[in-house]
Amino acid sequence: MTPRSLGETSARLLTVGRAAALSGLSPKAVRLYERKGLLPEAERTESGYRLFTADDVAVLHFIRQARTLDLTLEEIKDVLDLQRGGEQPCARVTGLLDAHIAGIDRKLADLRRLRRSLLAARRAAGTARRGGHDAVVCQIIEHAPAEPVRA
Amino acid sequence: MTPRSLGETSARLLTVGRAAALSGLSPKAVRLYERKGLLPEAERTESGYRLFTADDVAVLHFIRQARTLDLTLEEIKDVLDLQRGGEQPCARVTGLLDAHIAGIDRKLADLRRLRRSLLAARRAAGTARRGGHDAVVCQIIEHAPAEPVRA
DNA sequence: GATCGACCTTACCCTGAGGTCAAGGTTGTG
DNA sequence: CACAACCTTGACCTCAGGGTAAGGTCGATC
Known about the structure:
Oligomer: homodimer
Strand content of chain A: under 5%
């Protein structure tokens, strides 16, 4: 709890820039994660610099990996909180993964539909302008099949 | 330019709610499009109500269709501006469509990679906890293949 | 003419995950 | 001392609206 100077702790503790570099993140992201409660609040030097431990860096690695899997910060926080409460978060994690896979399948289907629509519109570009349809702005778009995509 | 009352114009002109309903949009979206310059500024009644024409509704339809194709408001505005400048926007539109198709192909590839990663992590959930690897939070995520997705 | 519900107006804050910039303090080195 | 490279907080930006607040207006009914 005692605030220290940077010098006397540099061997064990890391400033935000170093912790960020070690975990492959930006300092801004690291501060954000702390503020959102994914990391415990970092110790500070007398002058206010954050000091991170090797454990913090390990958690940062975990967060980065989880972000790679496209989990949201809130989901990651849930997992971390579970684990800090002494529970095995793995059951939760498999649930998250299943939900994300299902979400990805939905997005893939949406994107494929959107791709078909765009391609149809694109193909129509060649034959447009000859049909007698009067368009307000652009036949290409206006005569495209309307399949709304829920993002 | 002369402001009118609602009553004397109700046959030809529409309030924002009606124009929105006719074009399948929300009033909020219609106001946004006007503010962003996709629609010309609407006439107003003496009391400040917007008055939209049938032409405006046609443009709103066009915008909705273009949004369905996932074009951004800025791209749609470009097309509309081009057309208002007397040009045929179709060349621009085919370019936009091609760019969007290419973007979708990138997203599809990203999502498929992400799906593979998630699935690998999900499968590993069954065999985890038995390997001797020590994990900080969760082996499932930490031993997942790291393939960053650019959204 | 009062009242009511449905409509309209502007303006502000919210989303996700940070990026960017400003203004200023700290550290370590030449 | 000076300087660069770090750190701090804070505010504003993204994108396309959604939600809410506070208040004005419309048409119909009493």
